[in-house]
């Protein structure tokens, strides 16, 4: 909903200037830059922890984050910011990655916390959250999509490169059901490795391309996990 026509009160604009000036005004409202979104799944963590604060990265998870940080730095891009989930495993992954990207500001948000976005189809039997979680988590994760995944602001002149460190369910929902507009219930058919990189490109016209999904080709095989 960031196409120019959605940003203009057409009746008011026509009353003020007439239709002949509308086209020029709409040109002024068009995005000019491309946004590159890098969605990073957190590294392996202690899944036996009872509370979030106890679910810290494992030694292997810390190694994975180091590898991800090196990979992002090797791309030679000017990253604008790192937005990360406020959960412990995502925060710790961010701290390690940020060592390789000095000067890039970090922003924590609850919107990107892990959750149950929508009931998967076909259902799985090893993961059955209570129905209420789909309503609570789904609304929050949808809000994350609307807040963060959109075309560039009209004032943005240059292409941007942004990193989001979060969770598998969040990334799969954003990619499958929202960014690419695939059937939303199919999000759980995707699998993402720990520390993986998913790359979305959002063009000024609003079109979205998926350049990479769950890439861990930069990790040695013995360092790859999905837990």
Automatic annotation (TrEMBL):
Any GO MF annotation of the entry: protein serine/threonine phosphatase activity
Biological processes, Gene Ontology terms: positive regulation of mitochondrial fission; programmed cell death
EC number: 3.1.3.16
Compartment(s) where it occurs, according to its Swiss-Prot or TrEMBL record: Mitochondrion outer membrane
A cellular-component GO term for this protein: mitochondrial outer membrane
Keywords: Hydrolase, Membrane, Mitochondrion, Mitochondrion outer membrane, Necrosis
Enzyme class: hydrolase
Entry similarity comment: Belongs to the phosphoglycerate mutase family. BPG-dependent PGAM subfamily.
Protein name: Serine/threonine-protein phosphatase PGAM5, mitochondrial
Organism for this UniProt entry: Urocolius indicus (Red-faced mousebird)
